[in-house]
Inverse folding.
């Protein structure tokens, strides 16, 4: 099989490329990435010389480029990770989220229509379901939960999901969609909660917790997300949505305190700061469909996964120190300068 993985220089796409290149030496993995601020070829160093791996730089919303690539490569499968992925950036500047997440998705779908494909897989998010109240721990997102978005980011992702389903129904493009909860693990860009807190704690900086830290996220190790997508593209039903999550709900404060305790740093580093506008309260995935229909089972729980992740950041300081000392430091100043 020839598989185009878009966004493979980012966090989850990069982990997926590693996973697929190692697991399927007979398949060809083409990593297509525009190398935005979030794309990093250092992440691909372990696979860059493998015979079943190739990198192509390009933009998923550039129609001429995408059509030329599909004409020459004739992929069997496309897995679309490429996106603007950070909620806070979407609040600052929504347009680029519409361009990449919506127009980029429809451009890929048009190329799939034109050149034929065995499966187009859209990597979506649990954020398309909106949020759940803190006082109803019995409620979970299922595949039937209505889309009800809060941020420009989640609205762009929900919009892309609707186009994927429309291309399936109207043009018979073979598709699947996965909606996963919050990921953590190696190679995550340090703007996101867990790597931000690990990197700040390691340099004894203040840890900015939004609001009172009571918001709940359902954490999944990126390796388990990659395994689930691999199962869905091979065995998942055409036209279906699958939720991915491992029942690892934690408040943000619990996550931050776990990181501090593991690194033997004081809780006095925590600083409560102005809340994110429109901040979703709780995400919680019901993964029953994926477990019963496809036999998916996560390898990590939060306790084992967070220790492995902290260890990775300790052993790979060069990877993230290079990021936090570069252009990212200006972003941090802009977003947190008057909060800390
Ligand atoms: P990321 O921001 O780390 O990586 C995104 C990648 O996409 C980068 O390599 C970037 O260069 C590339 N990219 C951006 N715009 C592009 C364009 N126009 N053309 C080609 N490449 C482009 O994101 P991530 O956290 O790895 O998320 C990957 C996907 O998974 C996203 O679609 C996101 O919505 C989804 N998702 C993320 C999480 C999470 O917790 N991070 C959870 C569920 C779903
Ligand atoms: O649920 C899946 C989604 O998870 C993905 O679709 C998104 O791409 C991904 O970014 C993530 O979104 P969140 O907004 O949940 O992740 P983030 O790491 O930005 O924040 C996690 C929680 O931590 C959230 O409640 C906000 C809070 N937070 C975040 C940052 C960056 C803080 O308290 N302080 C911070 O500095």
């Amino acid at each position: 099989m020839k598989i185009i993985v878009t966004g493979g220089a980012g966090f989850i796409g990069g982990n997926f490329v590693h996973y697929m290149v190692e697991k399927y030496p007979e398949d060809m993995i083409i990593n297509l990435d525009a190398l935005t601020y979030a794309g990093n070829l250092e992440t691909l160093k372990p696979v860059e010389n493998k015979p079943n791996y190739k990198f192509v730089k390009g933009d998923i919303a550039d129609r001429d480029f995408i059509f030329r690539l599909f004409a020459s490569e004739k992929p069997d499968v496309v897995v679309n990770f490429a996106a603007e992925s950070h909620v806070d950036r979407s609040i600052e500047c929504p347009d680029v989220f519409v361009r990449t997440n919506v127009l980029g998705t429809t451009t890929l779908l048009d190329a799939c229509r034109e050149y034929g494909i065995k499966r187009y897989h859209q990597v979506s998010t649990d954020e398309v379901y909106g949020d759940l109240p803190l006082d109803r721990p019995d409620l979970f997102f299922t595949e039937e939960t209505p889309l009800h978005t809060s941020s420009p980011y989640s609205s762009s992702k929900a919009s892309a999901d609707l186009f994927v389903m429309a291309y399936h129904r109207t043009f018979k493009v073979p598709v699947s969609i996965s909606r996963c909860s919050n990921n953590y693990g190696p190679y995550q860009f340090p703007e996101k909660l867990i790597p931000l807190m690990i990197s700040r704690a390691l340099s004894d900086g203040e840890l900015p917790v939004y609001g009172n830290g009571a918001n709940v996220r359902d954490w999944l190790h990126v390796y388990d997300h990659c395994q689930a997508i691999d199962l869905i593209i091979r065995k998942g039903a055409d036209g279906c949505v699958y939720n991915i999550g491992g029942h690892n709900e934690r408040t943000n404060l619990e996550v931050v305190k776990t990181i501090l305790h593991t690194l033997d740093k004081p809780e006095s580093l925590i600083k409560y700061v102005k809340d994110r506008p429109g901040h979703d309260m709780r995400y919680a995935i019901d993964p029953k469909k994926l477990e019963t229909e496809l036999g998916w089972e996560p390898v990590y729980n939060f306790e084992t996964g967070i220790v492995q992740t902290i260890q990775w950041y300790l052993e790979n300081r060069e990877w993230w120190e290079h990021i936090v000392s570069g252009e990212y430091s200006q972003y941090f100043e802009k977003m947190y300068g008057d909060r800390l």
